[in-house]
Amino acid sequence: MSSSLQMAAEARLPSRFGEFRIFAFEQRTGQQLDEAVALVMGELRPDDCPLYRIHSQCLTGDVFHSLRCDCRAQLEQAMEQIAGEGKGLIVYEMKEGRGIGIVNKVRAYALQDGGADTVEANLQLGLDVDLRDYRLPAAIAQWFGLKQVRLMSNNPEKIAALEAVGIHVKRISAETDAGDQAGDYLRVKKEKLGHLIDGL
Ligand SMILES: [Zn+2]
To answer: What is the pLDDT of residue 179?
Structure first.
């Protein structure tokens, strides 16, 4: 199905990591409307190979500092690294719980409290393990005219989505010091979802 990407608005976003600009995007695919924002630092030029992170919304981690996952640590690490270079972008997708939404995510956490891992919990709820396809962040990278990026990610599907639209990807590991609590979660991501995590 064809889809159209629109940049709806752009504004300043001063942060404790430095000055970003925030770009708001909408993508319509049939009846479905997806939203995402891009945080951008510095001037992106077509021949640059900037740091790039695709981050999926994690209310529990990003906002409440949850230790069930390492999302917040990865986001902060990305903002810090980009600020260190003075250039780069982060696409933040509204895909809570790998796309299942916050209510199902809490249901899955309840099953995990009873002993299921992150993949088993989704399957027990009759949900896909991962509903994300990363076409929106790939389209946003194209919108910025990028031909190559240094992707801060452990997820091979993100690399594939960017390469599918002709963007050359050099992967930068996004491993964080996530602590013991997130260790089991990360091990399942590595063993069942194919994430490229070395430090476990
Ligand atoms: Zn998370």
So the answer is: 58
- Measured in degrees and rounded to the nearest 5, phi and psi for residue 24 equal -105, 125
132 belongs to the catalytic site: yes
CB 27 within 8 A of CB 56: no
Nearest-angstrom CA–CA distance, 198 and 63: 27
Residue 60 sits in a domain whose CATH number is: 3.40.50.10990
Taking residues 63-69, report their average pLDDT. Answer: 94
- Asked, for residue 26, whether it belongs to a domain, the answer is yes
Q: Give a yes or no: residue 39 inside a domain.
A: yes
The alpha carbon of 69 and the centre of ligand 1 are apart by a number of angstroms equal to 5
Query: What is the rounded average pLDDT of the residues 107-124?
Result: 92
- For the chain, what is the mean pLDDT? 90
| Catalytic-role residue among 62, 70, 117, 130 | 130
* Cα 58 to middle of ligand 1, angstroms: 5
pTM of the full structure: 0.86
Active site residue 133: no
